[in-house]
Design goal:
The structure is a homodimer of 118-residue chains. Chain A is mainly alpha-helical and 118 residues long. The first copy, chain A, has one domain: Orthogonal Bundle (Arc Repressor Mutant, subunit A). Chain A has seven helices and two strands. The structure holds a DNA duplex (30 and 30 nucleotides).
Chain lengths: 118, 118
Amino acid sequence: MYERKIIPNLNCGLDLVGEVLYGKWKMRLLWFINEGHKRPSELQRKIPDATRRVLNIQLKELEEHELVSKIIYPVVPPKVEYSLTDFGKTLIPVISAIGNWGDEYEERLRALILKRLD
Amino acid sequence: MYERKIIPNLNCGLDLVGEVLYGKWKMRLLWFINEGHKRPSELQRKIPDATRRVLNIQLKELEEHELVSKIIYPVVPPKVEYSLTDFGKTLIPVISAIGNWGDEYEERLRALILKRLD
DNA sequence: TCATATAGGGATAAATTAATCCCCTATTGT
DNA sequence: ACAATAGGGGATTAATTTATCCCTATATGA
């Protein structure tokens, strides 16, 4: 695994949240798990732009941060299920607020973002 | 300026928010500007962990995304003031929700994050 | 005359994150 | 025998983001 060379700042709430929520797909993973899409293959189908590899990595980090828990069923073919921990559930309203803002200003945001890409 | 090589996904609200809010210091900049710290040097003092360079870059992006506006007073020594646009103000409750969650679980988050750094 | 404050930016290096590529396990169905 | 399905991971490269270093300008105060 990658080992940090710079110790992160953990001064305020925003720093702390950043540490667990930064990551291109993390909020979406939490969101879809909360919606009941528990298995890795389901999550991959919900987020086709990400590779399985990255999803695995980000899921593992979410697990280490105790936001999700993982159950591995000892069956063949393998079966795995993720679910939110109680701690992870407390994040849902926050993610919801973020997503709602994005949805509300969707048109405007899309235009602004595209404009900046030349 | 850096020119992207991969077109970002802009599928859902979360993608869109990410485009304007990703950036290590952006939420803090918006927050402090909202609190009335308008001048670059003030902002730098509020965020001493960031270099002026980075703050300038991120402020510029916030400006291009119409979240903040910038006034340059033609005086010497130079004077500049940032303020939130109406659009930018709509983000404050969202940032607030994020920061509050971080503050609420500060102890736990700090412990979890530090544990993962070995 | 020299340091300080104010605001800014180019060029480059370093750090971090994400993407690519390829490989493994074991069972069921064709 | 072989493909498909399910879940996973090492090694490496590419992309992106931050940090460093250094330089510009002008006025004021010591």
